[in-house]
Amino acid sequence: MLSERRLEVLRAIVQDYVGTEEPVGSKALTERHKLGVSPATVRNDMAVLEEEGYIAQPHTSAGRIPTDKGYRLFVDKLAGVKPLSSPERRAIQNFLDGAVDLDDVVARTVRLLAQLTRQVAVVQYPSLTRSTVRHVELLALAPARLMLVLITDTGRVEQRHVDCPAPFGETSLADLRARLNSRVVGRRFADVPQLVQDLPESFELDDQGTVSAVLATLLETLVEETEERLMIGGTANLTRFGHDFPLTIRPVLEALEEQVVLLKLLGEAKDSGMTVRIGHENAHEGLNATSVVAVGYGSGDEAVAKLGVVGPTRMDYPGTMGAVRAVARYVGQILAES
Question: How far apart are CA 333 and CA 25, in angstroms?
Fold first, then answer.
């Protein structure tokens, strides 16, 4: 275990390197931070930190920079989450409150996160597999053609056309709408197939074919929409950090184009707490020089999706964690009120 003083030295090195982009020397540390010890003692502490793998010496520079292991210890033990100022919180609320639908919420969230953190922002759409039904609407388009509209508790809206085997009257349509909603509203999508499987039998024989067609379309919608969707923004921010990536940022850009990679980066939505993965903790080789800060968001106590940012390991972790957490909280409030 490192002593408290050496932890303080590591904290100072991380803060200075993130702020200045320059390797940090013992003289600069003693001048900038009230460590209460001589430069010689700090040099000794830095030698121990280097031996333990928390800092490294790039090239022949006299200064040191944090390693992935050093950043990990900083995040786990030394970094508090930096709260946003009142003006920042108001700006987030005002920007997100103007959203008109779920797509707009996600698009605004991506833009906002990228601007606040100056990193690449990634936002996962709420998954239907973790959503509940708010309402099912059925509209007659023609005597034997209907529109099914599925609305989720997270504001997601899906529309499908249903071709009926026979004309379906307005009275039957109203009856089906009422019975269907009485069974599925407020229920999880995973439970819907079992809840509606015997519904056709409760209708007249002439209407059973149409009821079955409506249910088949509803269940197909659930299957289709379990595919996860993402929105990404702020990729151009990476160009500001070109020197933070060995050789080139191309592997990072290529990795960010793969949706499967991004979903793995964000992690499972059910893990709603804050996750920070640093450097080589990211399984994808192209992202070994990046860090990911992600958190779950939702319309209640349970997360329905994840959002986060990707940037170089030389990142303002307290500020980034604070921004990601605050934005997730506001998005959750909007979904709850929508």
Answer: 45
